[in-house]
Amino acid sequence: MKALVYEKHGNPAEVLQVRELPAPKPGFREVRVRMLASPINPSDLYTIHGLYGVTQQLPATPGYEGVGIVEENGGGVLGWLRKGKRVAVIHEGGGAWAEQVVVPARRVFPVPDNVPDEQAATFFVNPATALVMTRHVLRVPQSQWLLQSAAGSALGKMVIRLGKLYGFRTINVVRRPEQVEELRELGADEVVCDSREKLVERVMAITQGQGVRYAIDPVGGETGTCVVECLGRGGRALLFGLLSGRPIQ
Which residue among 54, 88, 118, 240 has the highest number of C-beta atoms inside a 10 angstrom radius? Predict the structure, then answer.
């Protein structure tokens, strides 16, 4: 089978290689899944760079989630029930960027036929991250403003949906003007295009000079610095990424 492999940490474009590897064999209570799709999440890229909290033993194959077909059961009732089914896969140790993976049977979940591969492949990482940040870490109350950068990402869109579900309001920062209307149609309360507007000034206008009490930022650098400057008295910002490659100032 083919797999993407890296032997040292660094720029994914430079360290990733396509390798031919033996097909893995499932053990008891494990299944072998033929992968159909696996997303590229920031956590995957940070892992390859060696900047993530969890590191893989090298050489390693990235990929924490995806979707595929269960083709072999290593033993156990759950694997027998999953065999032949299209499933969402969570691969805690990484390895989903391969044609075939072996995972515990309890880590694969059948997907309805009407859910496309692209959606099923992103079933875990972004939804779980958005939910934990907004509901369990920051615990954003109803009617409060939550400021988020990179709002046009898959995770950002999930935060907007969670705001509608749980009653908090979102101020959403994007870079491209065409994203503004897209997020408004999704239900975003406010959208700021920081390539055309001054973020801090706009946020202060929205909040009548009070600033926000809750913010999340995966970008860092200048954007992350502005997000922190938008905090009001007693405000908290959760910095969970470094997409810009630069720290906040």
Answer: 88
What average pLDDT does the chain have? 93
- Which of 108, 99, 104 lies closest to 22, judged by CA? 99
In the residue annotation, 64 being an active-site residue is answered as no
Cβ(80)–Cβ(103) under 8 Å? no
120-171 residue pLDDT tens: 999 888 888 999 999 999 999 999 999 999 999 989 999 999 999 999 999 9
**What are the structural domains, with CATH classification, of the chain?**
2-120 (3.90.180.10), 125-239 (3.40.50.720)
Rounded CA-CA distance 177/166 in Å is: 27
- From the candidates 52, 64, 166, 214, which is the catalytic residue? 52
pTM: 0.78
In terms of Cα–Cα distance, which of 24, 32, 22 is closest to 75? 32
